[in-house]
Design goal:
Belongs to the glycosyl hydrolase 35 family. The chain has about 600 residues and is α+β, with helices and mostly antiparallel strands. It has three domains: about 5-330, Glycosidases (TIM Barrel, Alpha-Beta Barrel); about 350-355 and about 505-580, Jelly Rolls; about 360-485, Galactose-binding domain-like (Jelly Rolls).
Length: about 600
């Protein structure tokens, strides 16, 4: 049985061991491609894979657990072991990761509790979740013939709080459910975050997160260790080799040569986990959101991250730059040629059918009636869209003064099916002129949850609740009698395309294509406005004409031989009568 210990260094079977790790999130990579990514990690010369575990995917509704398909963490870890890789696991409850609400499940918002604290109700839910999750990890620890070296307690807590009792409570729950491998925390490398977010007094290993200046950052960590008389190995648990991207911003790139030199500086001084080795994709509605001032800035579907492997899992120049320097510095390290997949641009296909959202509400949703509007969470919905509808009466000849109060994140207002306005965070609450030629008007408000904040002070702000909050006002009074239609869009297979399509309204566009030779591809969304795409009824993510990405990556695992169905849900009334594929990502010049 192998043995891993943390003393003045990392020791594996009694010998000093340098951890050379790369982050691969199993939930951002199609299971058919796990081998490809893990093999390439090993081929570069690294010995360990690190992954987060997203609570909100594994327990999407309270008490309902899912570890199947892309969520089969056990299969991912077993495959890593078969390839000779060790593992580091960061098992929630909060993961950040530019992920929807930092991995916290939205149903927690419906309970009287405080997340990321020693609140008893919150810890009880975490305990219930760990009862399902952690036994899967226990038997994969190094001490149980597995390859998991260590586990993280919480995540970057020093950038959020300083409640040591909470961190200790998380650690106790992890021990309660059988984890015996060493624990660690990870935080920014400066004293403020280390003092607030670590359990150094409890002898829990402290690691740091940074992306450059390893000598300087490790010195800050060493100084902190010295305060407590700790003689520990230095490790960067997140060495940022790229960065994430937001809608409307330019793509962030990092020079491969500069990165490789910075990585080697870190490796010479300690151990490393490259964040990310393979970034993958924010499939579905799972992108996170950055908090900046008064607005939240949602991140794009691609989690390419300008990482060591590109979004599809193929080596970038960074891979070769790091591999060559690593081999030169450590000649005994085993390296290999990486695996490379070829993407294919399938022939373009013409639009087959189209139908309106409003005409299909009864198929896609169950109507809820309430005098006052209810938000998503109150109706058991976490992500997607939600539609509110009521009738209002004309009280004067001139345009009615109308306002939406407390709506999140993006709203589209329709009067008798005609678009009146679209508002985002900074505009919601502004007056809207509502022209009412008839005595009664049907008012419809479509609200999109564009992603919850995943990091920082706004993580627990009321703004992370989605849909309509206090409602809408005509003149000076709140409007009542709402029909509410939750639209998580988990299944679009039953849409009725014989129903009406109306120009300028949200709609579904159906395309079919014949594929005989499966391959990865990129869907070019040029010509479409904003929305999401379903490939064979799987939500592969959001698109938006504002860029910087104008494509959606489709792993070949979501395709099948024969007829494939692509359904585009588009909210702006902008669409193309053809859909095109590409061999490579398509970007917008900003």
């Amino acid at each position: 049985m192998k043995d891993f210990q943390i003393k003045d260094d990392f020791y594996l079977d009694g010998k000093p061991f340098k951890i050379l790790s790369g982050a691969i999130h199993y939930f951002r990579v199609h299971p058919d491609d796990w081998y490809h990514s893990l093999y390439n990690l090993k081929a570069m010369g690294f010995n360990t894979v690190e992954t987060y575990v997203p609570w909100n995917l594994h327990e999407p509704q309270k008490g309902q657990f899912d570890f199947s398909g892309i969520l089969d963490l056990e299969a991912f870890l077993d495959l890593a072991q078969e390839l000779g890789l060790y593992s580091i696991v960061r098992p929630s409850p909060y993961i950040c990761a530019e992920w929807e609400w930092g991995g916290l499940p939205a149903w927690l918002m419906t309970e009287d509790l405080q997340v990321r604290s020693s609140d008893a109700t919150y810890l009880k839910h975490l305990d219930d979740y760990y009862a399902f999750l952690l036994p899967k990890l226990v038997k994969r620890q190094l001490s149980h013939q597995g390859t998991i070296l260590m586990f993280q307690v919480e995540n970057e807590y020093g950038s959020y709080g300083e409640e040591k009792e909470y961190l200790r409570a998380v650690g106790r729950l992890m021990r309660k459910h059988g984890l015996t491998a060493p624990f660690f925390t990870s935080d920014g490398p400066w004293r403020g975050t280390l003092r607030a977010g670590t359990l150094i007094a409890d002898d829990i290993l402290v690691t740091g997160n940074f992306g450059s200046r390893a000598k300087e950052n490790f010195k800050q960590m060493q100084d902190f260790f010295d305060e407590y008389g700790k003689k520990w190995p230095l490790m960067c648990m997140e060495f940022w080799d790229g960065w994430f991207n937001r809608w409307g911003d330019e793509i962030i790139r990092r020079d491969p040569v500069e990165l490789a030199e910075a990585v080697m500086e870190c490796i010479e001084l300690g151990s490393i986990n490259l964040y990310m080795f393979h970034g993958g994709t924010n499939f579905g509605f799972m992108n996170g959101c950055s908090a900046r001032g008064q607005i939240d800035l949602p991140q794009v579907t691609s989690y390419d991250y300008d990482a060591i492997l590109d979004e599809a899992g193929n080596p970038t120049r960074k891979f070769y730059e790091i591999q060559s320097r690593l081999k030169a510095a450590y000649p005994d390290i085993e390296i290999a040629e990486p695996l490379i997949k070829e993407a294919k641009a399938f022939p373009e296909v013409a639009l087959a059918e189209k139908t309106g959202l409003f005409e299909n509400l009864d198929i896609l949703s169950s109507k809820h009636q309430s005098f006052y509007p209810k938000n998503m969470e109150a109706l058991g919905q976490s992500t997607g869209y939600i539609l509110y509808r009521t009738e209002i009466e004309r009280d004067k000849e001139e345009p009615e003064r109308f306002r939406v109060i407390d709506g999140r994140d993006r709203i589209q207002v329709y009067a008798d099916g005609q678009l009146v306005t679209t508002q985002y965070q900074t505009e919601i609450g502004d007056d809207i002129e509502l022209h009412m030629p008839e005595k009664q008007v049907e008012l419809t408000i479509l609200v999109e949850n564009m992603g919850r904040v995943n990091y920082g002070h706004k993580l627990t702000a009321p703004t992370q609740s989605k849909g309509l909050g206090r409602g809408a006002m005509a003149d000076l009074h709140y409007i009542g009698n709402w029909d509410i239609y939750p639209l998580p869009l988990k299944d679009v297979s039953q849409l009725d395309y014989s129903r009406t399509w109306t120009e300028g309204q949200p709609a579904f566009y159906r395309f079919t294509c014949q594929i005989e030779e499966l391959a990865d591809t990129y869907l070019d969304m040029t010509g479409f406005g904003k929305g999401v795409v379903f490939v064979n009824n799987v939500n592969i993510g959001r698109f938006w004409e504002k860029g910087p990405i104008l494509y959606l990556y489709i792993p070949k695992g979501y395709l099948k031989k024969g007829e494939n169905e692509i359904v585009v849900f588009e909210t702006e009334g902008k669409y193309s009568d053809k859909i095109r594929f590409s061999q490579k990502p398509v970007y917008k010049d900003l």
